[in-house]
Amino acid sequence: MSDASLNASQTQTGDAGFGDYFALLKPRVMSLVVFTALVGLLAAPVPVHPIIGFAAILFIAVGGGASGALNMWWDADIDRIMKRTQGRPIPAGRISEGEAFGFGMTLSVMAVVMLALASNLVAAGLLAFTIFFYVVVYTMWLKRWTPQNIVIGGAAGAFPPMIGWAVATGGISVESVLMFALIFMWTPPHFWALALFMKSDYKEAGVPMLTVTHGRRSTRKHILVYTLLLAPLAIGTAFTSIGGPIYLAVAVVLNAMFLKGAFDIWRRTEEQAEADNYKTEKKVFALSLFYLFGHFTAILLQSVMAGYGLGGW
């Protein structure tokens, strides 16, 4: 029996524990969803009762986790091929595809309904659209169809701060769109840096990542271009109501570091990258995680300072 057939048969039996169902929620991705949504909620100019705020963030987290479960359900076939995903609950045979689908759908409906009850219909509608966009538009359509999958699909990960803002204000504003844009523009260079040293996985699974369809040289150029476009957006946010001196200082430093990293990636040849096992690419990927965390932490600090009448322009 082939490995694929063995894994497929294993998914019919299942031997799942709590940790396996938790893994379906993609906790690392969920942590980013929770953090950026919380920043969006706290940065909004309208105060939210702590209990309502806690409930809202909880249901946003559940919705984000539900998206992850449905993503793993649909991508079970390629997860069995890619080395970095073979240990996930479905390809490892601990949870069946049907169980994952039911789990994800149940959590999706519960999250949207409960967020509507806890806050408002705008926030709930944004959460529902985010789940739909990630599962249907990105996972089912874009991911296996176009090398622009990350560019367009990145919108799914950019909605959480807008949802948090909507929980507080009941609507959408320029500030929430700016937070969305920051994540949206950050996503391509972040994932392409990863794809540079994970190319074989995507190629074997038939996923048309930019590194597979256009090669690493083109991917390096794209990383530099997107980082050049991202920097003025990120720094310019300092001069809006969610920015300020603290955010500006953080943004200038982080964007200088990210631009240098993108330039270092751009000027490297494949021979150089292979010789040091893609050390620079891995370093820039790690920096990209800190980059986003730093910007949203700065927005949060500016919001706290503004609450005390400090930190603004």
From TrEMBL:
Main subcellular location: membrane
Question: According to its record, how does it sit in the membrane?
Answer: Multi-pass membrane protein
Q: Family, per the entry?
A: Belongs to the UbiA prenyltransferase family. Protoheme IX farnesyltransferase subfamily.
Instruction: Cite the CDD domains for this sequence.
Output: PT_UbiA_Cox10
The membrane spanning regions, by residue number, are 29-46, 52-74, 95-117, 123-142, 149-172, 178-197, 223-240, 246-263, 284-310
What general EC class does the enzyme of this chain belong to?
transferase
Q: What does this protein do?
A: Converts heme B (protoheme IX) to heme O by substitution of the vinyl group on carbon 2 of heme B porphyrin ring with a hydroxyethyl farnesyl side group.
Q: What else is known?
A: Carbon 2 of the heme B porphyrin ring is defined according to the Fischer nomenclature.
Please give the name of this protein. Protoheme IX farnesyltransferase
Any idea where this protein resides?
A: Cell membrane
Could you say which EC number(s) this protein's record lists? 2.5.1.141
Higher taxonomy = Bacteria, Pseudomonadati, Pseudomonadota, Alphaproteobacteria, Rhodobacterales
Q: Which GO terms describe its molecular function?
A: protoheme IX farnesyltransferase activity
Q: Does the keyword Transmembrane helix apply?
A: yes
**Entry keywords, A to Z:** Cell membrane, Heme biosynthesis, Membrane, Transferase, Transmembrane, Transmembrane helix
Provenance organism: Roseovarius albus
The subunit structure is: Interacts with CtaA.
Q: In which pathway does it act?
A: Porphyrin-containing compound metabolism; heme O biosynthesis; heme O from protoheme: step 1/1
GO terms of biological process kind = heme O biosynthetic process
Cellular component aspect of the GO annotation: plasma membrane
Q: Could you tell me which InterPro entries the record lists for this protein?
A: Protohaem_IX_farnesylTrfase, UbiA_prenyltransferase, UbiA_prenylTrfase_CS, UbiA_sf
Which reactions fall under this protein's catalytic activity? heme b + (2E,6E)-farnesyl diphosphate + H2O = Fe(II)-heme o + diphosphate
